[in-house]
């Protein structure tokens, strides 16, 4: 842990609340304001666990116990986000506590899963990996601005089973009743547990904002519950300690649906506490005790609260009422599904032929996927993600190529995912040249005998880095600006 800070930085009202929660402020506050040990999650969609761990041995990865893909590390001065493995999407830098909700959700390949409040996508990418990129992952985020970070992470992690929608989570209860096998609601919250990395959160923290958020969470949790199939599992999580936003929100669900089951969370390597029985004048539902609470002076990670909720029976007799406060465009029947893509087999065929000619990728390699055109680009998704229709879909799958009048360009995101299929026009780069390539530079290279001028796939020790343009011994990196790594 580092960056010790004192309680003078926190508002008195907040400190008084923490004391009321029974916390020892001398231990709790310094831990809350210190960075937890750096940690990361391996993304098996992009790398084989053993070889990723081997290449990261210098940062001494230590397994956490509850999830075989999550590790604490000792990176010293090195930023995990600057590592080659991060650029390649083989690792995702994620706080250990933040990896627990999806571990509890336990997504399975081929299921239909809703991530109701998804940006920036730490948990969406974790769900996609657990699903082995199969089935349908609906990643919803209300904020169009925050969606950019979500799609950037989906790209880097090579996710092709996700469909992104941009709407308030409150609509799903009536838009998709009893549809999903599993749902994650990682709710907007007062974020008290992440103050070590974001003290600016204090600017908008107040007891009033806690009340406002609790109301929003109440509507979101009901919407999620309506949208869960009978027998399905949902996880409700927040990165805050406020009981109103945790036991309070779960109690609201149980008051409406008394047969909802809050299951105990049993995971190894976690030092957590049970949910609070009461707060001020409110007594919570007894099963809210099964909430897992994480405090940073007891668990080396950020503050979190997690509830595991099973839906034993149908709610179809109950009609999920559209939230009247939502703008009318988000009410049912409005903004109905209009496909943003078209099937235009001509361009798809041309793209596949071009990928075969230039890179030796056999067209049959894409047989199991859904390929479609959006504007002039070719995208690839699972069949399930390709077919589903919902209002306000902003993206599905991964863009694999851009088709121009006379040429087709494979994307860096796609070559990283399908690099193992590339048999022609490969160029191997050493460590130094790899750094320049990642920074988006043009550099002199020795032209391999079997590579001709034009687009080539750059590799470092068999890991596909991205696309470059080779011309007369110079290689111009085509790594998109948003993915470049400087330093
Ligand atoms: C805690 S963050 C989610 C973090 C994300 N699950 C992750 O792990 O990267 C909560 C998100 O909910 C979004 N949000 C706020 N109100 C929402 C609503 N009514 N419906 C859906 N998302 C909402 C916020 O914009 C924010 O991105």
Considering the chains and any ligands shown, give keywords for the structure:
alpha+beta, Rossmann fold, Nuclear Transport Factor 2, Chain: A, Archaeosine Trna-guanine Transglycosylase, Chain: A, domain 4, 10-stranded mixed β-sheet, binds S-adenosylmethionine, transferase, S-adenosylmethionine-dependent methyltransferase activity, RNA methyltransferase activity, NOL1/NOP2/sun family putative RNA methylase
Please provide a brief summary of the model.
With 487 residues, the chain is of the alpha+beta class.
CATH class identity of the largest domain: Alpha Beta
| Helix fraction by DSSP (H/I, runs of at least 4) | 25-40%
Q: What is the total domain count?
A: 3
Shape: globular
Instruction: List the bound ligands.
Output: S-adenosylmethionine
What's the helix count?
Answer: 14
**Which structural category fits the helices and strands?**
alpha+beta
Percentage of residues in strands: 15-25%
CATH homologous superfamily placement of the largest domain: Vaccinia Virus protein VP39
- Largest sheet, strands/sense/barrel: 10 strands, mixed
- What oligomeric state is this? single chain
The CATH architecture classification of the largest domain is 3-Layer(aba) Sandwich
Distance between the termini: 25 Å
Count of strand segments: 25
Radius of gyration: 24 Å
- CATH topology of the largest domain, what is it called? Rossmann fold
Mean of residue pLDDT values = 92
Low-confidence segments, given as residue ranges, are: 332-338
Pfam family, one: Methyltr_RsmB-F
Protein name: NOL1/NOP2/sun family putative RNA methylase
Keywords: Methyltransferase, RNA-binding, S-adenosyl-L-methionine, Transferase
Active site: 239 (nucleophile)
């Amino acid at each position: 842990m580092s960056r010790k800070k004192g309680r003078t930085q926190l508002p008195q009202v907040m400190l008084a609340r923490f004391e009321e929660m029974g916390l020892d402020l001398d231990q709790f506050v310094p831990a809350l304001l210190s960075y937890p040990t750096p940690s990361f999650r391996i993304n098996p969609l992009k790398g084989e666990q053993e070889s990723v761990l081997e290449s990261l041995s210098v940062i001494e990865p230590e397994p956490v116990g509850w999830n075989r893909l999550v590790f604490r590390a000792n990176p010293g001065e090195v930023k995990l986000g600057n590592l080659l493995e991060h650029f390649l999407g083989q690792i995702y830098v994620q706080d250990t506590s933040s990896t627990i909700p999806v571990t509890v959700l336990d997504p399975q390949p081929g299921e239909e899963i809703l991530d109701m409040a998804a940006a920036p996508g730490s948990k969406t990418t974790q769900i996609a990996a657990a699903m082995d990129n199969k089935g349908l992952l609906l990643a919803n985020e209300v904020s169009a601005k925050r969606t950019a970070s979500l799609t950037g992470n989906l790209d880097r992690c090579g996710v092709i089973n996700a469909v992104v929608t941009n709407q308030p989570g409150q609509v799903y209860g009536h838009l998709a009743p009893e549809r999903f096998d599993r749902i994650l609601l990682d709710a907007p919250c007062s974020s008290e547990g992440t103050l070590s990395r974001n003290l600016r959160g204090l600017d908008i923290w107040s007891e009033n904002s806690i009340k406002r958020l609790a109301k929003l969470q109440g509507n979101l949790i009901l919407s999620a519950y309506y949208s869960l199939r009978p027998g399905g599992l949902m996880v409700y999580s927040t990165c805050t300690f406020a009981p109103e936003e945790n036991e309070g929100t779960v109690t609201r669900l149980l008051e409406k649906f008394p047969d909802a089951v809050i299951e105990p969370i049993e995971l190894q390597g976690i030092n957590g506490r049970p949910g609070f029985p009461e707060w001020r004048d409110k007594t919570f539902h007894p099963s809210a005790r099964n909430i897992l609470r994480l405090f940073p002076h007891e668990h080396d990670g950020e503050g979190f609260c997690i509830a595991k909720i099973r839906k034993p029976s149908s709610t179809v007799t109950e009609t999920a009422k559209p939230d009247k406060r939502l703008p009318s465009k988000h009410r049912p029947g409005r903004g109905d599904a209009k496909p943003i893509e078209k099937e235009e087999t001509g361009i798809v065929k041309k793209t596949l032929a071009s990928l075969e000619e230039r890179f030796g990728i056999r067209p049959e390699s894409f047989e199991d996927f859904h390929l479609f055109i959006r504007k002039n680009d070719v995208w690839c998704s699972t069949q399930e993600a390709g077919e589903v229709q919902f209002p306000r879909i902003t993206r599905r799958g991964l863009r694999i190529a851009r088709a121009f009048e006379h040429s087709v360009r494979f994307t860096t995101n796609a070559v990283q995912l399908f690099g193992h299929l590339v048999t022609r026009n490969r160029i191997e780069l050493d460590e130094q040249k790899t750094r320049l390539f990642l920074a988006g530079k043009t550099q002199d290279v020795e032209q391999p005998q079997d590579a001709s001028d034009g687009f080539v796939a750059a590799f470092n020790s068999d890991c596909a880095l991205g696309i470059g343009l080779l011309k007369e011994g110079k290689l111009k990196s085509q790594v998109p600006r948003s993915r470049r790594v400087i330093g």
